[in-house]
Amino acid sequence: MPTVKRDTYTPDSLLSVAVRVFNERGYDGTSMEHLSKAAGISKSSIYHHVRGKEELLRRAISRALDSLFAVLDEPAAGEGRALARLEHVTRRTVEVLMAELPYVTLLLRVRGNTDTEVWAMGRRREFDQRVAELVKQAAADGDLRADVDARLATRLLFGMINSIAEWYRPDRTASGHGTGGGDTSAEVAEAVVRTAFAGLRTH
Question: Out of 49, 111, 161, 174, which could bridge 182 as a Cys pair, Cβ 3.0 to 4.6 Å?
Fold first, then answer.
């Protein structure tokens, strides 16, 4: 019989393991047995840290959401012309996604199958709406094209940003793999801003 390691996990290190397994197997396809095996500790040891796998999901998603909403509270996101604020939020959202890649990836994959997922999707919509307001204000200022619907522009913008989670791998180099692992978050963020706003700016 395989021996189970003594529990040396902290809540943060256990969360890291859980997020990896959720992303590999899907949240619905992950059992406490899977988490126990991945962590190398007993299920009772996991329950010593959390009430169950949904608590781990909520903690992981909260980490991603808290990081994203913190961007909206940064001074550069609330001062100056709407376009400059929008570009700042875009850059920082890319940087947060790359810094918190496993957590944001998990957030992007929720489908509303649990109370936690429904809550997370509502928070995502709130974030999207606040960005859409910046798009709308920038168009009203004459800095963005007014003939592109603000909600559509926001969806396209986030489609570009969120796609990074599908190809960016920090442990690989950009040369030969095409994954962007050799690019810094600032470089990727700048590329997104230049590409996204080239067709939206009025000047």
Answer: 174
DSSP class of residue 146 equals T
Q: 67-107: per-residue pLDDT in tens?
A: 999 999 999 999 999 999 999 999 999 999 999 999 999 99
Distance CA 153, CA 19 (A): 31
CA–CA gap between residue 188 and residue 30 (Å, rounded): 32
3-state secondary structure 3-72: CCCCCCCCHHHHHHHHHHHHHHHCCCCCCHHHHHHHHCCCHHHHHHHCCCHHHHHHHHHHHHHHHHHHHH
Query: Could you give the CA distance from residue 17 to residue 38 in angstroms, rounded to a whole number?
Result: 7
3-state secondary structure of 199: coil
Q: What is the pTM of this model?
A: 0.88
CA 92 remoteness from chain centre: 11
Nearest to 184 by CA among 174, 193, 176: 174
User: Can you tell me the distance from the alpha carbon of 143 to that of 135, in angstroms, rounded to the nearest whole number?
Assistant: 9
5 pLDDT higher than 80: no
pLDDT at 179 over 90: no
CB 108 within 8 A of CB 165: yes
The pLDDT, as a whole number, for residue 113 is 92
Buried (b) or exposed (e) across 29-62, using 16+ Cβ within 10 A?
ebeeebbbebbbbeeebbeebbeebeebbbbbbb
